[in-house]
UniProtKB/TrEMBL annotation:
<keyword id="KW-0479">Metal-binding</keyword>
<dbReference type="InterPro" id="IPR008972">
    <property type="entry name" value="Cupredoxin"/>
</dbReference>
<dbReference type="InterPro" id="IPR033138">
    <property type="entry name" value="Cu_oxidase_CS"/>
</dbReference>
<dbReference type="InterPro" id="IPR034288">
    <property type="entry name" value="CuRO_1_LCC"/>
</dbReference>
<dbReference type="Pfam" id="PF07732">
    <property type="entry name" value="Cu-oxidase_3"/>
</dbReference>
<dbReference type="InterPro" id="IPR001117">
    <property type="entry name" value="Cu-oxidase_2nd"/>
</dbReference>
<feature type="domain" description="Plastocyanin-like">
    <location>
        <begin position="38"/>
        <end position="152"/>
    </location>
</feature>
<protein>
    <recommendedName>
        <fullName>Laccase</fullName>
        <ecNumber>1.10.3.2</ecNumber>
    </recommendedName>
</protein>
<feature type="domain" description="Plastocyanin-like">
    <location>
        <begin position="166"/>
        <end position="313"/>
    </location>
</feature>
<dbReference type="InterPro" id="IPR045087">
    <property type="entry name" value="Cu-oxidase_fam"/>
</dbReference>
<dbReference type="Pfam" id="PF00394">
    <property type="entry name" value="Cu-oxidase"/>
</dbReference>
<dbReference type="Pfam" id="PF07731">
    <property type="entry name" value="Cu-oxidase_2"/>
</dbReference>
<dbReference type="InterPro" id="IPR011706">
    <property type="entry name" value="Cu-oxidase_C"/>
</dbReference>
<keyword id="KW-0439">Lignin degradation</keyword>
<dbReference type="InterPro" id="IPR002355">
    <property type="entry name" value="Cu_oxidase_Cu_BS"/>
</dbReference>
<comment type="similarity">
    <text>Belongs to the multicopper oxidase family.</text>
</comment>
<keyword id="KW-0964">Secreted</keyword>
Length: 563
């Protein structure tokens, strides 16, 4: 086997020492500045070379390092031909939606030749998050990790690892992704699926021309490593495992969990999972692998990305062993894995679950078919919440809200579907049209919200990972079939439920989340499958201001991109 690209632990250690030095002033928050140059670069994968949009010519993009309490200033300069915006996925951006990043929700995009500085204060968060483009499908190549270290002098609530590494899972298309999407839209159908999955931008040796495009992680016998795993794929939930090595889950979406050990993990697009791995096997080379989970009758790129866990001193000629990943449609593993996730819920890291609910919301998730005069067959596939397909505005919703601009959006998004039905019964294939609108839901400041997301069998059932901007939420309940408001709440976990920013709604099932609406602004909520987002499976919450200026949306920055 050809030589692989080894991970440079020395570089990592040096970077870490530099960071520790940078942050070593006790109890003093640092100001970290980053320059993101959005530029096109030729990249070769799978025997194909193509120009891709990158940040600083890197694929994946640079890791953003900070400590809890720091302020980040990230100046994004757009040299590419596309409009650009960057979302800082999972950062709460208190009162500061201007730095959240989704195009036409909290800002208009950064045009070619222009810049915008994202001013982000990290409050009460530590762990692994990530950043990505939030316009068109550009996050196919424009993404990277965010590593938030604990405050100086504060350790992890688990065994201190010897070293750590980022494992960013993604997808690769041989053709220009934006052209692939345009072609699909012309047909009114899904675009062609990806040609490969990747680990840190590399597909691994199971793909053609890819032995040199293989991520390798060198480990020392007897040491413990922290892997920060991110699913940056556009449309695929992924299983991840390392041959011969158990994974101990200690954090999800930058929130500590009660540790548990598993042979594999399941991670949906948008989610992060931190695991501890002990290098306790016979020294050798072991494949790490990522492959999709799909338990619905939907076409998917079922190819396996691989990287290599390589014990120090073992030559590259040793053939790696492949891990046993769960089967493509292993629903039982998916449900069982997610059921094990629990918040740490200690005095230092409490799970402050809202016990009293001010507002009950029930949103159905559906696919549909609408008329389309520009599509070749006259119709197009679409998606909706409560049968409403979201229409993107031409100016940022946050600007329209802040400046009270009329005619941009309404706040009449229904709290529940207007026509209840047997949501997860036999497939429904008639009357699949949806209503179109830029309709939002208004939430009173500091009110407590319970939202039940219900999958439906409109066309087909399918798992949908939903992401809420500006907030974490508690996943208090989940189940298969139709949500029963009389019986299911009795089974809620209100003590130590997992706290996250992105949650998979199970195929043909439901999930119940709770959060306190204490972050004023306009906050996007959408399916993190890029296909479904582009079809309209999204909405936003308008969270009202509190009683004083300290609990109100901050004024917009002077360099906010014009519309």
């Amino acid at each position: 086997m050809a030589k692989t690209n080894s991970f440079c632990w020395g570089c990592s250690a040096l970077l870490f020492l530099c960071l520790v030095g940078f942050f070593s002033t006790p109890a003093k928050a640092a100001l970290k500045t980053y320059q993101f140059d959005v530029q096109v670069k030729n990249v070769s994968r799978l025997c194909h070379s193509k120009p891709i949009v990158t940040v600083n010519g890197m694929f994946p993009g640079p890791t953003v390092y900070a400590r809890e309490g720091d302020t980040l200033l990230v100046n994004v300069t757009n040299h590419a031909q596309y409009n650009m915006s960057i979302h800082w996925h999972g950062l709460k951006q208190y009162r500061n939606g201007w730095a959240d990043g989704p195009a036409y929700i909290t800002q208009c995009p950064i045009k070619t030749g222009h810049s915008y500085t994202y001013n982000i204060t990290i409050t009460g968060q530590r762990g692994t998050l990530w950043w990505h483009a939030h316009i068109f499908w550009l996050r196919a190549t424009v993404y990277g990790a965010i590593v938030i270290l604990p405050k100086q002098g504060t350790g992890f609530p688990f065994l201190q690892p010897y070293k750590e590494a980022n494992i960013v899972l993604g997808e690769w298309w041989n053709n220009d992704v934006e052209e692939v999407v345009k072609h699909g839209n012309k047909l009114g159908l899904p675009p062609n699926m990806s040609d490969a999955h990747t680990i840190n931008g590399k597909p691994g040796p199971l793909f053609p021309c890819s032995e040199k495009h293989t991520y390798a992680l060198e480990v020392e016998q007897g040491k413990t490593y922290l892997l920060r795993i991110i699913n940056a794929a556009l449309n695929d939930e992924l299983f991840f495992a390392i041959a011969g090595h158990n994974l101990t889950v200690v954090e999800i979406d930058a929130v500590y969990t009660k540790p548990f050990t598993s042979q594999a993990i399941l991670i949906a697009p948008g989610q992060t999972t931190n695991v501890l791995v002990q290098a306790n096997q016979a020294p050798g080379r072991y494949f790490m692998a990522a492959r999709p989970f799909m338990d619905a009758p939907v076409s998917i790129d079922n190819k396996t990305a691989t990287g290599i866990l390589q014990y120090k001193g073992i030559p590259n000629t040793v053939q790696p062993v492949l891990p046993q990943l769960p089967a493509l449609n292993d629903t039982a593993f998916a449900l069982s894995f997610n059921a094990k996730l629990r918040s740490l819920n200690t005095a230092q890291f409490p799970a402050s679950v809202p016990l009293k609910v001010d507002r009950h919301l029930f949103y159905t998730i559906g696919l549909g078919i609408n008329q389309c005069t520009t599509c070749l067959n006259g119709t197009q596939l679409t998606a909706s919440l409560n049968n409403i397909t979201f229409v993107m505005p031409q100016i940022g919703l946050l600007q329209a809200h802040y400046f009270n601009t009329k005619g941009v959006f309404t706040t009449d998004f229904p709290d529940r579907p207007l026509t209840p039905f047997n949501y997860t019964g036999a497939p429904l294939t008639a009357n699949l049209g949806t209503k179109l609108g830029t309709r939002l839901s208004k939430l009173a400041f500091n009110s407590t919200v319970e939202l039940v997301l219900q999958d439906t069998n409109l066309l087909t059932v399918e798992s949908h990972p939903f992401h809420l901007h500006g907030y974490n939420f508690f996943v208090v309940g989940t189940g298969v079939g139709n949500f029963d408001p009389k019986k299911d709440p009795a089974k809620y976990n209100l003590v130590d439920p997992p706290e996250r920013n992105t949650i998979g709604v199970p195929t043909g099932g439901w999930v119940a989340i709770r959060f306190r609406a204490d972050n004023p602004g306009v906050w996007f909520m959408h399916c993190h499958l890029e296909l479904h987002t582009s079809w309209g499976l999204k909405t936003a919450f308008v969270v009202e201001n509190g009683k004083d200026s300290d609990h109100s949306v901050l004024p917009p920055p002077t360099d906010l991109p014009p519309c």
